[in-house]
Amino acid sequence: MVSSSGVRIKELRRTYGFEEVAIVPGDVTTNPELSVTNLKIGPYQFTTPVLASAMDAIVDPNFAGLMARLGGLGVMNLEGAYTRYEDPYAALADVSNAPKEGVTEVLQRVYAEPLKDHLIAQRIKEVKATGAVCAVSVTPQNAKRLSPIAVEAGADIIVVQSTVTTARHISNSYHGLRFSELMPLISVPVVVGNCVTTSAALELMEQGIDGLLVGVGPGAACTTRDVTGVGVPQVSATLDVAAARDEFVERGGKYVAVITDGGIRTGGDLCKAIAAGADGVMIGTPFAQTFEAPGKGFNWGMASPHPALPRGTRINVGAVASLEQVLFGPSHRTDGTQNLIGALKISMSMVGAQTIEEFHEKAELVVAPTIATEGKSFQRAGRI
Amino acid sequence: MVSSSGVRIKELRRTYGFEEVAIVPGDVTTNPELSVTNLKIGPYQFTTPVLASAMDAIVDPNFAGLMARLGGLGVMNLEGAYTRYEDPYAALADVSNAPKEGVTEVLQRVYAEPLKDHLIAQRIKEVKATGAVCAVSVTPQNAKRLSPIAVEAGADIIVVQSTVTTARHISNSYHGLRFSELMPLISVPVVVGNCVTTSAALELMEQGIDGLLVGVGPGAACTTRDVTGVGVPQVSATLDVAAARDEFVERGGKYVAVITDGGIRTGGDLCKAIAAGADGVMIGTPFAQTFEAPGKGFNWGMASPHPALPRGTRINVGAVASLEQVLFGPSHRTDGTQNLIGALKISMSMVGAQTIEEFHEKAELVVAPTIATEGKSFQRAGRI
Amino acid sequence: MVSSSGVRIKELRRTYGFEEVAIVPGDVTTNPELSVTNLKIGPYQFTTPVLASAMDAIVDPNFAGLMARLGGLGVMNLEGAYTRYEDPYAALADVSNAPKEGVTEVLQRVYAEPLKDHLIAQRIKEVKATGAVCAVSVTPQNAKRLSPIAVEAGADIIVVQSTVTTARHISNSYHGLRFSELMPLISVPVVVGNCVTTSAALELMEQGIDGLLVGVGPGAACTTRDVTGVGVPQVSATLDVAAARDEFVERGGKYVAVITDGGIRTGGDLCKAIAAGADGVMIGTPFAQTFEAPGKGFNWGMASPHPALPRGTRINVGAVASLEQVLFGPSHRTDGTQNLIGALKISMSMVGAQTIEEFHEKAELVVAPTIATEGKSFQRAGRI
Amino acid sequence: MVSSSGVRIKELRRTYGFEEVAIVPGDVTTNPELSVTNLKIGPYQFTTPVLASAMDAIVDPNFAGLMARLGGLGVMNLEGAYTRYEDPYAALADVSNAPKEGVTEVLQRVYAEPLKDHLIAQRIKEVKATGAVCAVSVTPQNAKRLSPIAVEAGADIIVVQSTVTTARHISNSYHGLRFSELMPLISVPVVVGNCVTTSAALELMEQGIDGLLVGVGPGAACTTRDVTGVGVPQVSATLDVAAARDEFVERGGKYVAVITDGGIRTGGDLCKAIAAGADGVMIGTPFAQTFEAPGKGFNWGMASPHPALPRGTRINVGAVASLEQVLFGPSHRTDGTQNLIGALKISMSMVGAQTIEEFHEKAELVVAPTIATEGKSFQRAGRI
């Protein structure tokens, strides 16, 4: 763009979130029964392309086992309450029972307790005992120290995750993670996140990773955007990172699983993420709302306890359905929050896709903002 | 679009709904008395270009007769309560009387009752007895079985309708409908829906159909979009399908009636649909709000009873006017919900169109979003 | 635009309303005292470029006199209560006192009383007695009959106004107005409206008119758009008609005053209309809110009494300030609804314009949507 | 743009505010501890790139001292209560205690008291006594008279500020400021504002100034836009003025500090302003909300007391945190209103910038509107 006085001004690209796009039906339709929804991460294949977020209120060893039985993958946080406390449920109860106005302080106190290496091994063994593939999450700064302990204890997938993770991190302390130093230490697939651009994704893929989590400041209300201004809406972020994945394969690299993480609330959101190019999704709050989640109707982000700059807080999400209902129905709600996989299969059938790969190829997304209108409630009764 | 690292990214087209566009007045105006609003479907001509949706709460044989007397067409659902129950009104009352929290279960139970072939014939005869052209709706999976029964019983128009219907449906069961197998079985005009793209519309037109229903997930609040992410706003969908109709005629095909179905609440919506290229519209909720509708102030979508993934629910719309008032006034409301045909005639007159064909040619649509402003209520008094 | 199947689809132009644009300050600023705001209609010059709408609740002979004393122009409706009733104030009181739910019927009844020719002459004489330039408004269907009577009685400016008025109106009755027949009958300046496009404006200018009212369905909430779908947001409409005026002058025609009519609530709206190219504005509701308005705190549109398709209703706007305060302050409110001319002079000074002609040249408009934000109330305190 | 009748119509450029953009994370990340946030104005360097607005409810000598101790700069208004009253706190209390409906009149009365030259000298000495760099603000009309007095009394930086200030102001009175006459009178750095375009900024830079305040009618709710229609959203304004600064340097001029002034409420807003090219920001309301602000929980704009056209009013913002908490935390809130500098350092680290100059280079902004969604509150719990 050139200003009226002939000076060049930075141009701004338009990006899109879930609530601004829709999927166009195809020229061919299929029966939903034909839809196959497999996700592959390294050697592991999941029939349900859904990961549960590594949040204390969601994934404990029991929940990880349940995710596995339902075809998906629960990721356990190795730096949360489970590896700080012999009895983590007492710590979770402290958070849940804290009065609303003092909850940030309680979170800050609970997470000040040091990590205990023996609990890392113990929790991983508890996950493995359920028969599940065991995925655990560490932060970049602790990745080199904790990953070998986790792999030794039996972890099958290491997830290295922070708000923004890049292949090149500059630091003047021990915190700076070099993937070139990390990768030789561990023999299992590595999933890294989070990331939102083509260029950063390509650099991370070149490190030899197996999966990439997409999402920084997703969702209109995510406080990372309020606090730091940083974030990219999830549909655009997924389109960009998926383009990097396809480019990487074209350049001779391996197929890296792209997993959209954050902001997914409904079947519609999930379908749009996958239509935009994701191989799978990571889900938080909708799983915190299940009867089986250890948060018992509460949830909080892993940045919420940050001592100086807490981003996010504990919220009361309620426990409203079983995990099986959320994933496979039957649904007693019409807002898209239950039977996510049923919704995905129907969405795929409406664009004539029998596999997620075909869905990537055939699904056209259009910009179609949701506008609140007075007539809204009346339209709900239309033939759908 | 090309990302900063030179990788191509899918581009997203902007689409528009009713609330985002407006019709530009023309250089010539006419007297509204000169406006002729005929709709032709096969050999049948309707002076009122409006179809009533095939919903149980709207069209029973009596309502179909009333629509005919007023120049339009009511479509009766052959797979709803009327063909499952000798006394359908008791079933409708069960739905209306169900407590709000249990209504999805009641809907699921009511529609679990099997279809009865003899009731199909009986209901068609009841419609014919009113003197109306009899249009009936079937789903693609039942079309081959039910259509011949319906035609045999006297049905004049067959509507094959599901959320998304294409000329090529892939299935591994008996459900897959081939139009090439269906069309020879029936001798009456066929209307198919729903559809939202130029390409899918062209393929359907090549099957020899007479009308096409436009609309998948219309309206901001339609739960098909919440649940599956699939949908295209109605103005863009109508522009695209109307372009297919014109292209089909140019290629030597017959003129296929394009009927915008869903999301129309006001005269303004109706006018915009027709300005965008529709030959007629299909209306649901505004007709469920008439005194004559069998839903007695309630309405529900035909996907609401879906056992695993209900999309839509029963809503209390209220019975607020007669069908004649809704179509022809006199209006006692200023929000555009009454005297829809009077509104269409005035709209046509403001662009100087005496026929719907001229309206298609002369009406320019512009993007003019409705933005909620504080001053809203004050502006209502302006000279209009 | 070309669809994916290679078929051309109508493209939609984006249009803008007041709430979506802002004026960019200039490279030169001036003292507001230097701002001159003259409006010329034919031989008449007004120091206040504001017309009061021809609505019964706003302009009676007394109000027209007051407008003149303040430098502007009040337009009296020749087809309203003043020319139907010897005592119009009793009729106005009937409307004001009607219960909310029955007001449309009362409006329909009040305006069913026939027009009386002798009252036309009498009202015009009452306006003239105040010393004001007398402007009166007639509808196109009555223009040929009423205009000569009005001119004979002393009217100085004839305003021919309906929702949409074009140079070519097709009719099969006596209603169709030909300007070629009308213009020879009257010797005074003619203002015509309403109009929103360059092409229609050019054709009307070729009829020899002196002013053009801009605005069809302005404002987000105007019910003409709800009812008929027809309307163009005011900033785009004004830009287009102003372009026609400039083009007409370039082709050798006379300078026709462009007057933006409708949707103006604040000084900001007024400034944007003029920045977009208007020579003046016509204002309704803000004047209905003055102590001097005969509606005594109520207002209603002249299409509200329409027997079959009422568009608009009576609203309670309240009487909150004197007309002088609204036009010239001092303001006791900070929302822009008072001291409209003071605001215009400051706005002109911020782009360095000393005349409205310079304002047209120098004012750049940008698209700058007003987005409701949580922090809204806090921002109000900023340095402004 | 060309209309359908071939006439050229003005095109409107899209501009953006804080709530419509987001910062894209970089390909390299750094540790936040490495982020250096220096701001230079003339010879003065500030480690905290934040100025406190010259509003009476915010900056008194004590607050200016506190800002200095925290690395920033408080600007004291030389034309407010502090230089009109020996005991300004009594005047402030009058404003705070005024009943809501009468506050505009109280403001108008309080600020009708004449300025007193001896108080100017006294207040500057009070600021200097705290050890702070002393910045004072004057309006253009008083700049030539007051600036020498201020410099004489020890002021280190003169801020010449009005709603819109240009290098060329046309006036027929003594009010017109010529910078060519002002600059020789004073030997200290001059900051001028406000300004929003490349061209006006370039002209001001050519006057030899050291800093430029960006912002006219910022924020969705700023009443300058309501009242006069004039304003440019802050992100676009900052991009444009920063482009002028870079152009000016390229032409051989000095580096002029660009300071975004107005509409900044959260760390995210601050980060976006700097990402858009600002060297620093000026903050109002968030500082009025500190325990140390003399407004004691109230705030009002300096245009609020305008006798004829008040823009802005007194608002109750509450006193919610210490200034140190707002700037450096620790934060007890998750909405971005506390620890603004901590947020900036994290934001810089996420794009791999160690200095503000690097942040300008590396931070990409995208258009990413905040859309209110029903699911909003649930998303707050996501991993951030």
Low-pLDDT runs of chain A? 372-384
CATH superfamily caption of chain A: Aldolase class I
Strand content of chain A: 15-25%
Instruction: State the assembly state of the protein chains.
Output: homotetramer
How does this model look, in words?
4 copies of one chain form a homotetramer. The first copy, chain A, is α/β, with parallel strands linked by helices. Mean pLDDT of chain A is 90; it is low at 372-384. The termini of chain A are far apart. Chain A has one domain (18-375): Alpha-Beta Barrel (TIM Barrel). In chain A, the strands form 4 sheets. In chain A, strands 6-7-8-9-11-12-13-14 form an 8-stranded parallel barrel, surrounded by 5 helices. Chain A has 15 helices and 17 strands. Chain A is globular. The interface between A and D is large, with 88 and 70 residues. β3 of chain B pairs parallel with β10 (168-170) of chain C, so a sheet runs across the interface.
Features:
homotetramer; 384 residues; alpha/beta; TIM Barrel; 8-stranded parallel β-barrel; two-stranded antiparallel sheet; 34% helix; disordered C terminus
What's the short version?
Chain A is an alpha/beta fold and 384 residues long.
Strand and helix map with partners:
Four copies of one chain form a homotetramer.
Chain A: E1 13-14, E2 21-24, E3 28-30, E4 39-41, E5 44-46, E6 50-52, H1 61-69, E7 73-77, H2 88-97, H3 103-110, H4 117-129, E8 135-138, H5 140-152, E9 157-161, E10 168-170, H6 179-182, E11 190-195, H7 198-205, E12 211-214, H8 223-228, H9 234-250, E13 257-261, H10 267-275, E14 280-283, H11 285-288, E15 298-299, E16 315-316, H12 323-328, H13 340-350, H14 356-362, E17 364-367, H15 376-379
Parallel strand pairs in A: 6-7, 6-14, 7-8, 8-9, 9-11, 11-12, 12-13, 13-14
Antiparallel strand pairs in A: 2-17, 4-5, 15-16
Helix pairs in contact in A: 1-4, 4-5, 7-9, 10-13
